[in-house]
Amino acid sequence: MESVRRWWQDLSGLILPAECGGCGTARTVLCHRCRAALHGTVPRRVRPDPEPPGLPAVHAAARYADEVRAVLLAHKERGALALTRPLGTALAGAVRAGLGEAGEGEGAPPPSRAVLLVPVPSARRATRSRGHDPARRIALAAAAELRATGLPVRVAAVLRQRRVVADQTGLNSRQRSDNLRGALAVAAGGARLLCDADAVVLVDDLVTTGASLAEAARAVRAALETHRAAEAAGPAAVDTHRAGPVGRAAGEEGVAAVYDSAAREGSGVRPSEAREGGTDPAPVPVRTPGAARSADLLRAAVVAAPPDAFEMNRN
Known about the structure:
Layout: H1 2-15, H2 32-39, E1 44-46, E2 58-63, H3 66-77, H4 84-101, E3 115-119, H5 124-130, H6 134-148, E4 153-157, E5 159-161, H7 173-180, E6 184-186, H8 190-195, E7 199-206, H9 211-233, H10 235-243, E8 257-259, E9 298-305, H11 307-311
Parallel strand pairs: 2-9, 3-4, 3-7, 7-9
Antiparallel strand pairs: 1-2, 4-8, 5-6
Helix pairs in contact: 4-6, 7-9, 9-10
């Protein structure tokens, strides 16, 4: 039944756009005014106040207000999947801004290895209720747009929920941080993929308090540190670490999911050595052991952030 629902959402959202997702104008996915609100500003660095510890540099494409808020809610809560592509375009701009600030965007040599977009996962109950994972869908669309400009971008869905968390609605920034602390982990084998990237960009549709991105960053940094320690201890330790369980039985999720097609959301873990040319995801290039970089390769990008998060960066 759930698969039928997702299929119908995909079909109706793609070929039967009844109204603009932002303002309700008939017979258009996104009208000119709402598209301008989503795409018409230069993506910039944003900072929640208070800023949670461990939050990487975050860039956002648009202010979370009015039309942009309506578009995000239509995509996330009402399954308006035709909005995935324009939202992905906005997210791609925020990713470019973050890479450019780090010297890896426009005007800099292209990365020699993959840039990995790591979506912050929705709670399983939310994904079941909505019939899709909004952040992953938008990440796939953004990756496709970035690859079209020559960047070797892939989506690596390596983060997993370790435990059930409370609904964040109504919680303040401190309560959200407490609620999410320790809630995420990197799937077995995921740290190796992260270490092999030139840059890792945590992505989500929205940042408010920054608690979700900070927890995702903590989980990624912890996995990288564990992987580096295992590499230093020798091949046997690395093999043991790769086979270790994260949230399921050992070996059930041996390698993290990597996607390079905006047409497939995917939900299971796919082997990174899957063949090219078919429907399976393309492999991520692998570096020699011991070449892992420090956690400064980590940053974040979102479609939207509250207006006051931008106002803090006027100067």
